[in-house]
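By convention, the C-alpha coordinate line describes the chain's fold. To illustrate:
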Amino acid sequence: MTSTTHTSAVFTLETMDVPGGTETILRGGRHLLPLLPQAFAGVRRIGVIGWGPQGRAQARNLRDSLAGTDIRVSVGLRPGSASAADARAHGFTEEDGTLGDWLAVTADSDLVILLIADAALAAHHEEIFAALRPGATIGLSHGFLLGHLRATGGEFPPGQGVIAVCPKGMGDSVRRLYEQGAEINGAGINSSYAVHADPDGKATDRALGWSVALGSPYTFRTTLESEYRSDIVGERAILLGAVHGIVESLYTRYRLSGDDPVTAYERSCENVTGPIARTISHAGLRAVREELDPAGREVFDRAYSATYGPAREIVAEIYDEVADGTELRSVVLAERRLGAREMSGIGGSPMWAAGAEVRARRAERALPVEPFTAGVFVATMTAQVDEFAERGHPWSEIVNESVIEAVDSLLPYMHARDVAYMVDNCSRTARLGTRRWGPRFQAAYEQIAYPASELPPNEALLAAFDTHPLHEALAAAAKLRPSVDISVV
Protein backbone atom coordinates (compact mmCIF):
# COMPACT_ATOMS: atom_id res chain seq x y z
CA MET A 1 0.00 0.00 0.00
CA THR A 2 1.17 3.52 -0.78
CA SER A 3 0.05 6.77 0.78
CA THR A 4 0.80 10.29 -0.38
CA THR A 5 -0.29 12.69 2.37
CA HIS A 6 0.38 16.29 3.21
CA THR A 7 -1.02 18.81 5.65
CA SER A 8 -2.22 22.39 5.49
CA ALA A 9 -2.77 24.97 8.19
CA VAL A 10 -5.22 26.84 5.94
CA PHE A 11 -7.14 24.48 3.66
CA THR A 12 -9.23 21.40 4.39
CA LEU A 13 -7.81 18.46 2.45
CA GLU A 14 -9.48 15.26 1.26
CA THR A 15 -8.30 11.69 0.91
CA MET A 16 -8.83 10.02 -2.46
CA ASP A 17 -8.65 6.27 -2.97
CA VAL A 18 -6.32 5.24 -5.79
CA PRO A 19 -5.06 1.82 -6.89
CA GLY A 20 -2.87 0.44 -4.12
CA GLY A 21 -3.43 3.21 -1.60
CA THR A 22 -4.63 6.77 -1.07
CA GLU A 23 -3.64 10.30 -2.03
CA THR A 24 -4.43 13.52 -0.21
CA ILE A 25 -5.72 16.25 -2.49
CA LEU A 26 -7.28 19.70 -2.30
CA ARG A 27 -10.64 20.37 -3.90
CA GLY A 28 -10.69 23.98 -5.15
CA GLY A 29 -13.47 26.48 -5.72
CA ARG A 30 -14.30 30.16 -5.46
CA HIS A 31 -15.45 29.69 -1.86
CA LEU A 32 -11.78 29.27 -0.90
CA LEU A 33 -10.67 32.67 -2.22
CA PRO A 34 -11.19 34.43 1.15
CA LEU A 35 -8.50 32.12 2.58
CA LEU A 36 -5.84 33.37 0.18
CA PRO A 37 -4.41 36.16 2.41
CA GLN A 38 -3.86 33.53 5.10
CA ALA A 39 -2.29 31.10 2.62
CA PHE A 40 0.00 33.85 1.33
CA ALA A 41 0.98 35.07 4.81
CA GLY A 42 4.17 37.11 4.53
CA VAL A 43 3.66 37.75 0.80
CA ARG A 44 2.85 41.33 -0.12
CA ARG A 45 3.84 41.18 -3.79
CA ILE A 46 3.73 38.37 -6.32
CA GLY A 47 5.90 38.84 -9.37
CA VAL A 48 4.99 36.90 -12.50
CA ILE A 49 8.04 36.85 -14.76
CA GLY A 50 7.08 36.35 -18.39
CA TRP A 51 4.01 36.89 -20.55
CA GLY A 52 3.83 33.70 -22.56
CA PRO A 53 0.68 31.55 -22.55
CA GLN A 54 1.06 30.57 -18.88
CA GLY A 55 2.27 33.99 -17.71
CA ARG A 56 -0.59 35.75 -19.44
CA ALA A 57 -3.15 33.42 -17.88
CA GLN A 58 -1.67 33.07 -14.42
CA ALA A 59 -1.01 36.76 -13.84
CA ARG A 60 -4.62 37.59 -14.68
CA ASN A 61 -6.09 34.77 -12.61
CA LEU A 62 -3.94 35.65 -9.60
CA ARG A 63 -4.81 39.35 -9.88
CA ASP A 64 -8.52 38.63 -10.13
CA SER A 65 -8.51 36.14 -7.25
CA LEU A 66 -6.57 38.52 -4.99
CA ALA A 67 -8.66 41.61 -5.80
CA GLY A 68 -9.57 43.44 -2.63
CA THR A 69 -6.58 42.13 -0.68
CA ASP A 70 -3.29 43.84 0.10
CA ILE A 71 -1.39 41.45 -2.17
CA ARG A 72 -0.33 43.00 -5.48
CA VAL A 73 0.41 41.00 -8.62
CA SER A 74 3.03 42.48 -10.97
CA VAL A 75 4.39 41.33 -14.31
CA GLY A 76 8.09 41.44 -15.07
CA LEU A 77 9.35 41.49 -18.66
CA ARG A 78 12.76 41.67 -20.26
CA PRO A 79 13.77 45.04 -21.75
CA GLY A 80 12.19 45.59 -25.16
CA SER A 81 9.79 42.68 -24.77
CA ALA A 82 7.20 42.53 -27.53
CA SER A 83 4.69 41.33 -24.92
CA ALA A 84 4.59 44.63 -23.03
CA ALA A 85 1.78 46.09 -25.14
CA ASP A 86 -0.45 43.08 -24.55
CA ALA A 87 0.27 43.14 -20.82
CA ARG A 88 -0.75 46.80 -20.73
CA ALA A 89 -3.90 45.99 -22.70
CA HIS A 90 -4.84 43.58 -19.92
CA GLY A 91 -4.38 46.14 -17.17
CA PHE A 92 -0.75 45.73 -16.07
CA THR A 93 0.96 49.10 -16.32
CA GLU A 94 4.14 50.88 -15.34
CA GLU A 95 2.08 53.74 -13.89
CA ASP A 96 0.54 51.65 -11.11
CA GLY A 97 3.65 49.54 -10.55
CA THR A 98 2.18 46.29 -11.88
CA LEU A 99 4.44 46.11 -14.96
CA GLY A 100 8.18 46.53 -14.97
CA ASP A 101 11.62 45.20 -15.72
CA TRP A 102 11.91 41.52 -14.88
CA LEU A 103 14.86 41.89 -12.52
CA ALA A 104 13.31 44.89 -10.76
CA VAL A 105 10.03 43.01 -10.25
CA THR A 106 12.01 39.99 -9.03
CA ALA A 107 13.88 42.11 -6.48
CA ASP A 108 10.66 43.59 -5.11
CA SER A 109 8.59 40.37 -4.88
CA ASP A 110 8.09 37.91 -2.06
CA LEU A 111 6.89 35.18 -4.43
CA VAL A 112 8.58 35.18 -7.84
CA ILE A 113 6.79 32.97 -10.36
CA LEU A 114 9.12 32.18 -13.26
CA LEU A 115 7.10 31.65 -16.44
CA ILE A 116 9.55 32.56 -19.19
CA ALA A 117 10.39 29.92 -21.79
CA ASP A 118 12.37 26.90 -20.58
CA ALA A 119 15.46 27.61 -22.66
CA ALA A 120 15.42 31.29 -21.68
CA LEU A 121 15.15 30.32 -18.02
CA ALA A 122 18.09 27.95 -18.45
CA ALA A 123 20.11 30.82 -19.94
CA HIS A 124 19.12 33.56 -17.47
CA HIS A 125 18.32 31.90 -14.14
CA GLU A 126 21.56 33.08 -12.54
CA GLU A 127 20.61 36.73 -13.15
CA ILE A 128 17.20 36.12 -11.62
CA PHE A 129 18.62 34.27 -8.63
CA ALA A 130 21.04 37.11 -8.00
CA ALA A 131 18.16 39.62 -7.94
CA LEU A 132 16.02 37.72 -5.42
CA ARG A 133 15.36 39.39 -2.11
CA PRO A 134 16.44 37.31 0.91
CA GLY A 135 13.73 34.86 1.94
CA ALA A 136 11.70 35.24 -1.25
CA THR A 137 10.02 32.12 -2.63
CA ILE A 138 10.76 30.91 -6.17
CA GLY A 139 7.67 29.64 -7.99
CA LEU A 140 7.78 27.39 -11.04
CA SER A 141 5.09 25.88 -13.24
CA HIS A 142 7.40 23.30 -14.75
CA GLY A 143 10.34 21.33 -13.39
CA PHE A 144 12.54 21.92 -16.45
CA LEU A 145 14.86 24.23 -14.52
CA LEU A 146 15.58 21.53 -11.95
CA GLY A 147 16.57 19.12 -14.71
CA HIS A 148 18.82 21.77 -16.25
CA LEU A 149 20.47 22.60 -12.93
CA ARG A 150 21.19 18.94 -12.27
CA ALA A 151 22.63 18.49 -15.74
CA THR A 152 24.93 21.49 -15.38
CA GLY A 153 25.94 21.15 -11.74
CA GLY A 154 23.90 24.14 -10.60
CA GLU A 155 21.46 24.47 -7.72
CA PHE A 156 18.73 26.72 -6.37
CA PRO A 157 20.05 29.48 -4.09
CA PRO A 158 20.15 28.47 -0.41
CA GLY A 159 17.65 30.09 1.93
CA GLN A 160 15.02 30.65 -0.76
CA GLY A 161 11.81 28.65 -0.81
CA VAL A 162 11.17 26.72 -4.03
CA ILE A 163 7.63 25.63 -4.90
CA ALA A 164 5.79 24.66 -8.05
CA VAL A 165 2.19 24.78 -9.20
CA CYS A 166 1.81 23.12 -12.57
CA PRO A 167 -1.55 23.50 -14.35
CA LYS A 168 -2.45 20.40 -16.34
CA GLY A 169 -3.43 22.37 -19.40
CA MET A 170 -2.36 25.08 -21.80
CA GLY A 171 -2.41 28.73 -20.75
CA ASP A 172 -5.55 29.55 -22.73
CA SER A 173 -7.36 26.74 -20.89
CA VAL A 174 -6.13 28.04 -17.53
CA ARG A 175 -7.70 31.42 -18.24
CA ARG A 176 -10.80 30.33 -20.12
CA LEU A 177 -11.97 27.82 -17.52
CA TYR A 178 -11.18 30.29 -14.73
CA GLU A 179 -13.53 32.76 -16.42
CA GLN A 180 -16.18 30.05 -16.70
CA GLY A 181 -15.64 29.40 -13.00
CA ALA A 182 -17.13 32.80 -12.22
CA GLU A 183 -20.47 31.24 -13.14
CA ILE A 184 -19.81 27.57 -12.28
CA ASN A 185 -17.98 27.10 -9.00
CA GLY A 186 -14.95 24.87 -9.33
CA ALA A 187 -14.46 25.21 -13.08
CA GLY A 188 -10.77 25.33 -13.90
CA ILE A 189 -7.70 23.31 -14.83
CA ASN A 190 -6.31 20.73 -12.39
CA SER A 191 -2.82 21.40 -11.05
CA SER A 192 -0.05 19.51 -9.38
CA TYR A 193 2.11 21.15 -6.75
CA ALA A 194 5.57 20.48 -5.37
CA VAL A 195 7.57 21.76 -2.43
CA HIS A 196 11.27 21.58 -3.23
CA ALA A 197 12.63 23.89 -0.49
CA ASP A 198 10.73 25.16 2.55
CA PRO A 199 12.98 27.26 4.81
CA ASP A 200 10.13 29.00 6.67
CA GLY A 201 7.65 26.13 6.85
CA LYS A 202 5.00 27.98 4.83
CA ALA A 203 5.65 26.58 1.38
CA THR A 204 2.78 24.09 1.25
CA ASP A 205 0.12 26.67 2.01
CA ARG A 206 1.66 29.14 -0.44
CA ALA A 207 1.59 26.52 -3.17
CA LEU A 208 -1.98 25.46 -2.41
CA GLY A 209 -3.05 29.11 -2.28
CA TRP A 210 -1.46 29.71 -5.67
CA SER A 211 -3.32 26.72 -7.11
CA VAL A 212 -6.65 27.88 -5.63
CA ALA A 213 -6.04 31.37 -7.03
CA LEU A 214 -5.54 29.89 -10.51
CA GLY A 215 -8.94 28.20 -10.24
CA SER A 216 -7.74 24.60 -9.99
CA PRO A 217 -10.64 22.31 -9.05
CA TYR A 218 -8.27 19.53 -7.98
CA THR A 219 -4.68 19.89 -6.71
CA PHE A 220 -2.39 16.94 -6.08
CA ARG A 221 1.15 16.62 -4.80
CA THR A 222 4.20 15.66 -6.84
CA THR A 223 7.90 16.46 -6.92
CA LEU A 224 9.73 18.75 -9.34
CA GLU A 225 11.59 15.79 -10.80
CA SER A 226 8.47 13.70 -11.26
CA GLU A 227 6.65 16.67 -12.77
CA TYR A 228 9.18 17.53 -15.43
CA ARG A 229 9.62 13.92 -16.44
CA SER A 230 5.89 13.26 -16.83
CA ASP A 231 5.19 16.65 -18.39
CA ILE A 232 7.93 16.58 -21.02
CA VAL A 233 7.27 12.94 -21.88
CA GLY A 234 3.55 13.64 -22.13
CA GLU A 235 4.09 16.55 -24.51
CA ARG A 236 6.08 14.33 -26.82
CA ALA A 237 3.63 11.44 -26.49
CA ILE A 238 -0.15 11.43 -26.05
CA LEU A 239 -0.62 15.17 -25.45
CA LEU A 240 0.93 16.40 -28.70
CA GLY A 241 3.62 14.39 -30.46
CA ALA A 242 1.76 11.09 -30.63
CA VAL A 243 -1.50 12.83 -31.57
CA HIS A 244 0.26 14.42 -34.52
CA GLY A 245 1.74 11.09 -35.58
CA ILE A 246 -1.57 9.27 -35.11
CA VAL A 247 -3.71 11.60 -37.21
CA GLU A 248 -1.15 11.96 -40.00
CA SER A 249 -0.71 8.20 -40.28
CA LEU A 250 -4.43 7.46 -40.10
CA TYR A 251 -5.29 10.11 -42.67
CA THR A 252 -2.85 8.50 -45.08
CA ARG A 253 -4.27 5.04 -44.30
CA TYR A 254 -7.84 6.14 -44.98
CA ARG A 255 -6.89 7.99 -48.16
CA LEU A 256 -5.10 4.89 -49.48
CA SER A 257 -8.21 2.85 -48.73
CA GLY A 258 -10.22 5.12 -51.03
CA ASP A 259 -11.63 7.85 -48.80
CA ASP A 260 -11.92 11.40 -50.12
CA PRO A 261 -9.92 14.02 -48.14
CA VAL A 262 -12.86 15.21 -46.03
CA THR A 263 -13.93 11.70 -45.03
CA ALA A 264 -10.34 10.71 -44.25
CA TYR A 265 -9.96 13.80 -42.05
CA GLU A 266 -13.21 13.00 -40.24
CA ARG A 267 -12.15 9.42 -39.57
CA SER A 268 -8.73 10.49 -38.28
CA CYS A 269 -8.23 13.96 -36.81
CA GLU A 270 -11.88 14.87 -36.27
CA ASN A 271 -12.57 11.56 -34.56
CA VAL A 272 -9.71 11.87 -32.07
CA THR A 273 -10.45 15.48 -31.12
CA GLY A 274 -14.23 15.05 -31.18
CA PRO A 275 -16.18 11.91 -30.25
CA ILE A 276 -13.25 9.90 -28.86
CA ALA A 277 -12.06 12.75 -26.62
CA ARG A 278 -15.62 13.51 -25.43
CA THR A 279 -16.30 9.87 -24.59
CA ILE A 280 -13.13 9.58 -22.52
CA SER A 281 -13.78 12.91 -20.78
CA HIS A 282 -17.30 12.01 -19.66
CA ALA A 283 -17.34 8.21 -19.44
CA GLY A 284 -13.74 7.04 -19.22
CA LEU A 285 -11.34 5.12 -21.41
CA ARG A 286 -13.09 1.76 -21.25
CA ALA A 287 -16.35 3.32 -22.51
CA VAL A 288 -14.78 4.01 -25.91
CA ARG A 289 -14.66 0.28 -26.58
CA GLU A 290 -17.82 -0.70 -24.69
CA GLU A 291 -20.04 1.70 -26.64
CA LEU A 292 -19.07 0.16 -30.01
CA ASP A 293 -21.19 -2.54 -31.67
CA PRO A 294 -19.65 -6.05 -31.89
CA ALA A 295 -18.18 -5.46 -35.34
CA GLY A 296 -16.69 -2.14 -34.24
CA ARG A 297 -15.28 -3.77 -31.11
CA GLU A 298 -13.47 -6.35 -33.21
CA VAL A 299 -11.86 -3.58 -35.28
CA PHE A 300 -10.94 -1.68 -32.11
CA ASP A 301 -9.37 -4.81 -30.63
CA ARG A 302 -7.16 -5.44 -33.63
CA ALA A 303 -6.02 -1.81 -33.75
CA TYR A 304 -5.37 -1.71 -30.00
CA SER A 305 -3.44 -4.99 -30.03
CA ALA A 306 -1.24 -3.91 -32.93
CA THR A 307 -0.54 -0.41 -31.62
CA TYR A 308 0.19 -0.90 -27.93
CA GLY A 309 3.64 -2.49 -28.33
CA PRO A 310 5.15 0.05 -30.77
CA ALA A 311 3.65 2.89 -28.74
CA ARG A 312 5.07 1.60 -25.47
CA GLU A 313 8.54 1.25 -27.01
CA ILE A 314 8.57 4.89 -28.15
CA VAL A 315 7.18 6.25 -24.86
CA ALA A 316 9.88 4.32 -22.96
CA GLU A 317 12.55 5.75 -25.25
CA ILE A 318 11.25 9.28 -24.73
CA TYR A 319 11.20 8.75 -20.98
CA ASP A 320 14.79 7.53 -20.94
CA GLU A 321 15.95 10.58 -22.90
CA VAL A 322 14.09 12.95 -20.59
CA ALA A 323 15.42 11.18 -17.48
CA ASP A 324 19.07 11.26 -18.59
CA GLY A 325 18.89 14.91 -19.71
CA THR A 326 19.20 14.30 -23.46
CA GLU A 327 15.82 15.79 -24.29
CA LEU A 328 16.39 18.83 -22.06
CA ARG A 329 19.79 19.49 -23.63
CA SER A 330 18.23 19.30 -27.08
CA VAL A 331 15.80 22.08 -26.13
CA VAL A 332 18.60 24.34 -24.85
CA LEU A 333 20.74 23.64 -27.94
CA ALA A 334 17.82 24.32 -30.27
CA GLU A 335 17.19 27.66 -28.58
CA ARG A 336 20.82 28.66 -29.12
CA ARG A 337 20.67 27.55 -32.74
CA LEU A 338 17.33 29.11 -33.60
CA GLY A 339 17.50 32.24 -31.49
CA ALA A 340 14.66 34.58 -32.41
CA ARG A 341 14.00 32.84 -35.73
CA GLU A 342 10.54 31.48 -36.33
CA MET A 343 10.20 27.72 -36.61
CA SER A 344 8.59 26.42 -39.77
CA GLY A 345 5.01 25.19 -39.47
CA ILE A 346 3.81 21.61 -39.83
CA GLY A 347 0.43 22.49 -41.34
CA GLY A 348 1.50 22.12 -44.95
CA SER A 349 0.71 18.43 -45.41
CA PRO A 350 -2.37 17.66 -47.55
CA MET A 351 -4.65 16.60 -44.71
CA TRP A 352 -4.89 20.04 -43.09
CA ALA A 353 -6.53 21.55 -46.18
CA ALA A 354 -9.64 19.47 -45.40
CA GLY A 355 -9.99 20.76 -41.86
CA ALA A 356 -11.96 23.92 -42.60
CA GLU A 357 -14.60 22.02 -44.59
CA VAL A 358 -14.93 19.39 -41.86
CA ARG A 359 -15.43 22.01 -39.15
CA ALA A 360 -17.99 23.83 -41.31
CA ARG A 361 -20.23 20.76 -41.61
CA ARG A 362 -20.22 19.71 -37.96
CA ALA A 363 -23.75 20.96 -37.42
CA GLU A 364 -25.09 18.60 -40.06
CA ARG A 365 -24.53 15.36 -38.15
CA ALA A 366 -23.10 13.72 -35.06
CA LEU A 367 -19.93 11.89 -36.02
CA PRO A 368 -19.70 8.34 -34.60
CA VAL A 369 -16.53 6.92 -33.07
CA GLU A 370 -14.30 5.36 -35.72
CA PRO A 371 -13.28 1.99 -34.19
CA PHE A 372 -9.83 1.68 -35.77
CA THR A 373 -8.87 5.25 -34.86
CA ALA A 374 -10.16 4.68 -31.33
CA GLY A 375 -8.08 1.52 -30.93
CA VAL A 376 -4.91 3.30 -32.01
CA PHE A 377 -5.50 6.32 -29.77
CA VAL A 378 -6.55 4.39 -26.66
CA ALA A 379 -3.61 2.00 -27.04
CA THR A 380 -1.20 4.94 -27.19
CA MET A 381 -2.76 6.58 -24.16
CA THR A 382 -2.65 3.32 -22.20
CA ALA A 383 0.98 2.75 -23.18
CA GLN A 384 1.90 6.11 -21.65
CA VAL A 385 -0.10 5.31 -18.52
CA ASP A 386 1.73 1.99 -18.12
CA GLU A 387 5.15 3.57 -18.63
CA PHE A 388 4.44 6.21 -15.98
CA ALA A 389 3.11 3.59 -13.55
CA GLU A 390 6.19 1.43 -14.04
CA ARG A 391 8.42 4.47 -13.39
CA GLY A 392 6.70 5.12 -10.06
CA HIS A 393 4.55 8.19 -10.71
CA PRO A 394 1.52 8.74 -8.42
CA TRP A 395 -1.88 7.96 -9.91
CA SER A 396 -3.12 11.55 -9.84
CA GLU A 397 -0.16 12.56 -11.94
CA ILE A 398 -0.60 9.60 -14.28
CA VAL A 399 -4.26 10.24 -15.06
CA ASN A 400 -3.86 14.01 -15.31
CA GLU A 401 -0.76 13.96 -17.54
CA SER A 402 -1.97 11.08 -19.70
CA VAL A 403 -5.75 11.47 -19.89
CA ILE A 404 -7.38 14.51 -18.28
CA GLU A 405 -5.05 17.15 -19.71
CA ALA A 406 -5.55 15.64 -23.14
CA VAL A 407 -9.34 15.35 -23.20
CA ASP A 408 -10.26 18.39 -21.09
CA SER A 409 -7.70 20.97 -22.25
CA LEU A 410 -5.67 20.22 -25.36
CA LEU A 411 -7.99 18.14 -27.56
CA PRO A 412 -10.89 20.64 -27.29
CA TYR A 413 -8.56 23.32 -28.64
CA MET A 414 -7.36 20.98 -31.37
CA HIS A 415 -11.01 20.33 -32.22
CA ALA A 416 -11.66 24.05 -32.56
CA ARG A 417 -8.45 24.95 -34.41
CA ASP A 418 -6.95 21.60 -35.60
CA VAL A 419 -3.89 19.67 -34.45
CA ALA A 420 -1.49 21.50 -36.77
CA TYR A 421 -2.52 24.84 -35.27
CA MET A 422 -1.85 23.52 -31.75
CA VAL A 423 1.56 22.16 -32.68
CA ASP A 424 2.56 25.43 -34.31
CA ASN A 425 1.35 27.59 -31.41
CA CYS A 426 2.45 25.73 -28.28
CA SER A 427 5.54 26.41 -26.18
CA ARG A 428 8.87 26.00 -27.91
CA THR A 429 9.77 23.09 -25.65
CA ALA A 430 6.58 21.26 -26.63
CA ARG A 431 6.91 22.26 -30.26
CA LEU A 432 10.46 20.97 -30.55
CA GLY A 433 9.49 17.69 -28.92
CA THR A 434 6.42 17.25 -31.10
CA ARG A 435 8.41 17.83 -34.28
CA ARG A 436 11.02 15.32 -33.16
CA TRP A 437 8.80 12.51 -31.87
CA GLY A 438 5.58 12.91 -33.87
CA PRO A 439 7.18 11.49 -37.03
CA ARG A 440 8.55 8.60 -34.96
CA PHE A 441 5.03 7.60 -33.92
CA GLN A 442 3.81 8.09 -37.49
CA ALA A 443 6.49 5.84 -38.96
CA ALA A 444 6.10 3.14 -36.30
CA TYR A 445 2.36 2.97 -36.86
CA GLU A 446 2.57 2.94 -40.64
CA GLN A 447 5.40 0.40 -40.75
CA ILE A 448 4.66 -1.82 -37.73
CA ALA A 449 1.23 -1.34 -36.16
CA TYR A 450 -1.05 -1.04 -39.17
CA PRO A 451 0.32 -4.11 -40.99
CA ALA A 452 -0.01 -6.06 -37.72
CA SER A 453 -3.64 -4.98 -37.35
CA GLU A 454 -4.56 -7.59 -39.96
CA LEU A 455 -3.72 -10.29 -37.39
CA PRO A 456 -6.16 -11.58 -34.74
CA PRO A 457 -6.32 -9.45 -31.57
CA ASN A 458 -4.17 -10.20 -28.54
CA GLU A 459 -6.69 -11.45 -25.97
CA ALA A 460 -4.28 -11.20 -23.02
CA LEU A 461 -3.50 -7.57 -23.86
CA LEU A 462 -7.22 -6.76 -24.13
CA ALA A 463 -7.96 -8.50 -20.82
CA ALA A 464 -5.24 -6.39 -19.19
CA PHE A 465 -6.89 -3.26 -20.58
CA ASP A 466 -10.33 -4.30 -19.36
CA THR A 467 -9.11 -4.83 -15.79
CA HIS A 468 -6.56 -2.01 -15.77
CA PRO A 469 -6.25 -0.03 -12.50
CA LEU A 470 -6.31 3.09 -14.66
CA HIS A 471 -10.09 2.85 -14.81
CA GLU A 472 -10.35 2.97 -11.01
CA ALA A 473 -7.94 5.91 -10.78
CA LEU A 474 -9.72 7.82 -13.53
CA ALA A 475 -13.11 7.24 -11.92
CA ALA A 476 -11.79 8.65 -8.64
CA ALA A 477 -10.45 11.73 -10.40
CA ALA A 478 -13.69 12.14 -12.35
CA LYS A 479 -15.58 12.70 -9.10
CA LEU A 480 -13.67 15.97 -8.79
CA ARG A 481 -14.43 17.09 -12.36
CA PRO A 482 -16.56 20.26 -12.57
CA SER A 483 -19.81 19.88 -14.48
CA VAL A 484 -18.54 22.03 -17.33
CA ASP A 485 -16.63 21.55 -20.58
CA ILE A 486 -14.20 24.19 -21.70
CA SER A 487 -15.74 26.80 -23.98
CA VAL A 488 -13.18 27.53 -26.69
CA VAL A 489 -13.60 31.03 -28.05
User: Anything to note?
Assistant: The first strand starts at residue 2 and ends at 4.
